[in-house]
Specification:
Layout (H helix, E strand, L loop, with lengths): L6 E5 L7 H8 L4 E9 L1 H10 L5 E2 L5 E2 L4 E2 L1 E3 L16 H16 L5 E4 L4 H4 L9 H8 L7 E6 L2 E5 L9 H4 L2 H17 L7 E5 L14 H15 L3 E6 L1 H4 L2 H6 L2 E4 L2 H12 L4 E5 L4 E5 L16 H14 L1
Parallel strand pairs: 1-2, 1-7, 2-6, 3-5, 7-14, 9-12, 10-11, 10-12
Antiparallel strand pairs: 2-4, 8-9, 8-13, 13-14
Helix pairs in contact: 1-2, 7-8
């Protein structure tokens, strides 16, 4: 393995979901990287059988040639993995898998982490609510509440000011301090990771019509506009706040390096309408590269011909691109 070959680690996600199916497909797709998979070998072989395919496992990691072979670090689950039927008893192993991958990336043993879908419901219990990969990985990386979730498809980039929280909590969560940190993380990562010299960031309003001068809410006047003005004076290139209902039109997209939406569905509904199945989820602000697919576990189509690996392949391509 050459020293210049990007080293990617892939977490299979919930083994009852389509993560294992996607890894089966990956065995036949070449990538210019060394790829390490975290998954259960026996379950992978069984899933390959549902697709009429056979897998072979490599003893050592090397260039991923797409010749039907995978380098897999075997994961043990408490209960048998049943396709399409998630099992809470297997949640501990899933969490340990994430912990291991992040620890390895923090130790710089890998250049990037690619994650496949997990079930927040399966990984949550009465004492501990699992809000998502993004937040959990940020916590493990010691940057809790500083991470930024961004979805990417070609030149369309949509970042979020808030992620997996109730809509009722959004206004009080978007403080001046938090918004400033998010914008600076987005600005800096666009420059360093995406090589955008002077990133033009379009910020959406929180309220309908971006508040219309306080007519429909005052967060734009008290939080968004002061921070946008402050950061523009410091050299950022921010536009907004503009009404979210007209932000994602061709004219704005053409002139924007990244959008910053105020809450999850405000940004992801238009993003997925424009690019579903092709997008990549990237966590900004981490000390390493982390990408993921733009979809969920899809328990209902496990083992079927309906599965589209496009987003998974794009997540790997993006991880390699950002690592080099």
């Amino acid at each position: 393995m050459g020293n210049d070959l990007p080293k990617i680690i892939i977490n299979c996600g919930d083994p009852s979901g389509i993560g294992l199916d996607l890894i089966v497909f990956l065995a036949e797709k070449p990538f210019n990287a060394s790829i390490t998979i975290l998954a259960n070998k026996e379950s992978l072989v069984q899933r390959a059988g549902l697709h009429g395919k056979k897998l072979a496992f490599q003893e050592n990691v090397s260039l991923h040639k797409g010749d039907g072979r995978l380098y897999v670090k075997n994961i043990h689950y408490e209960n048998d993995v049943i396709p399409g039927l998630p099992n809470k008893h297997n949640s501990k192993a899933q969490m340990q898998m994430i912990d291991h991958a992040v620890k390895e990336c923090m130790a710089m043993n890998y250049d990037a982490l690619v994650t496949l879908p997990i079930s927040k419901e399966i990984l949550s219990d009465s004492n501990n609510k699992f809000t998502g990969h993004t937040e959990y990985i940020a916590k493990l990386s010691n940057i809790k509440n500083q991470e930024v979730m961004m979805l990417v498809h070609n030149k369309l980039r949509v970042a979020l000011a808030t992620t997996h929280i109730p809509l009722s909590d959004v206004p009080k969560t978007i403080t001046r301090e938090k918004l400033e940190k998010i914008i600076l993380t987005l600005h800096n990562d666009l420059k360093t990771k995406f090589k955008v010299l002077s990133p033009r960031i379009t910020v959406t309003g929180l309220n309908p019509h971006a508040g219309e001068n306080g007519e429909f809410g005052n967060e734009e006047l008290t939080v968004l506009i002061p921070i946008i003005n402050k950061l523009n004076e410091q050299g950022c290139n921010l536009v907004g706040p503009i009404p979210a209902d007209t932000a994602f039109t061709p004219g704005h997209i053409k002139k924007t390096d990244a959008f910053l939406a105020m809450f999850h569905d405000q940004g992801l509904a238009p993003f997925k309408a424009l690019s579903f199945g092709k997008g990549v989820n990237i966590t900004l602000g981490l000390p390493f590269i982390r990408t993921s697919v733009d979809h969920g576990t899809a328990f209902d189509i496990v083992g079927s011909k309906e599965i589209d690996p496009s987003s998974f392949y794009e997540a790997i391509f993006t991880a390699i691109e950002l690592s080099t």
